[in-house]
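Researcher: Next sequence.
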Amino acid sequence: LMKIMPGGLSMTTIFIYAILPFLSLLLSGCGDPCRSEIDQKVLELAATEPGAQKLPSGLIYLELKPGLGPSPGPNDKVHVRYTGMLTDSTVFDYTVKYRSPRKIALQNAIPGWIEGLQKMNYGAKAKLTIPPHLGYGKRGKKFSVPGCAILIFEIELLGIEKYVQVETTEG
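Model: Next structure:
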């Protein structure tokens, strides 16, 4: 005997279309979808470089040149020069040295940048080795970064525009 729920759906239909996909995700570990495709050796090697820090998120941070000023917050805009590479040394993005630094709102950046740049001080240069879940993930970036790619950025922090929240008064 099949029990029909309000709206005409059977318990079997609800199970198949609503509960089963959720259970499947839960049982799959619901972790990083790229985990099986990541070249773990690259991440392990980056984490063993002298001075490298592997953060709880999986980001590997290596300071190349210390800075002296403040650090940006997650809502600040940063002025940076950088080179972004894949693990095979293919450069997929960079700023040209003879032009002005690129201005980027951290809130619009990939998670690896948000976390890594907040560790930097004004004037610092760092190498970020970013696992896929903190980069472009399984989808990649159209035309330049394949899905599940580890990203390696050398970033120089040349300016910070602090986020200022404007309060409004209602009256």
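Model: The mean pLDDT is 84. The radius of gyration is 22 Å.
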